[in-house]
Write a structure and sequence with these properties.
Length: about 220
């Protein structure tokens, strides 16, 4: 019985499914088949809907023009700074929203991080503006959640599972599976090595899988 294809949100959990005995896209242990069909379809729809509703247009590469904008912004050129912000503010907001699950709070966190950026550009040395900005966003989200626990509201299965993750693992899965960032980029944003980033991502995916299986049982 084939339960998923290698695309969309379902594919991100392929490695974790080995724990449940799935090989080459087929269920070897039928007892899991019905639950996993529902689980994979739920994750696929959820992640696809998020990407469709909030498209990403920020490039990964630190291109030459962006390097020029950053150098100019350090000299006080607000036009260059605004170009940097225009390129990365949508992604910054998306990350904040996925982490705090509150649109107003996410907007405020993003605006505050951007407002403080001109006086902190000296910190952006051997990394991209995007890496620096997303680090500021995740740090501010962590501080916000310590002061303001999530408000009880209707949640999807995956959103409930995300809320149960330790914050570092939640950050990692958001950056990897919702924003399609590489392990190297995530490691720089979270200031851990690549191995630690991969381990966090694996733990987060396994925890989400288990959460979905428990709800479907």
């Amino acid at each position: 019985m084939k339960i998923f294809t290698r695309h969309g949100g379902a594919a991100i959990f392929e490695r974790s499914l080995y724990v449940l005995g799935i090989r080459n896209e087929y269920v070897l242990y039928p007892m899991y088949s019905v639950v996993l069909c529902v689980t994979m379809r739920t994750m696929n729809v959820f992640f696809s809907s998020l990407r469709g509703a909030l498209p990403s247009n920020a490039p990964r590469s630190f291109c030459g023009i962006e390097a020029k904008w950053l150098r100019a912004a350090r000299r006080g050129d607000m036009r260059a700074f605004n170009q940097l912000v225009a390129r990365h503010q949508e992604r910054a907001y998306r990350v904040a929203f996925h982490l705090v699950q509150d649109a107003a709070a996410a907007a405020n966190i993003t605006q505050t991080a951007i407002a403080h950026a001109p006086n902190a550009l000296y910190e952006v040395e051997d990394e991209t503006f995007q890496v620096w900005l997303l680090r500021q966003i995740t740090q501010r989200c962590a501080a916000f959640l310590q002061l303001c626990p999530p408000i009880a509201a209707p949640r999807t299965q995956i959103q409930r599972g995300m809320e149960l993750l330790p914050f570092p693992e939640r950050v990692t899965v958001v950056l990897a599976d919702l924003e399609n960032l590489t392990t190297a980029e995530i490691a720089r944003i979270t200031r851990v090595d690549a191995t630690a980033a991969r381990q966090r991502l694996h733990r987060a995916r396994c925890a989400l899988r288990d959460s979905l299986l428990n709800e479907a049982a």
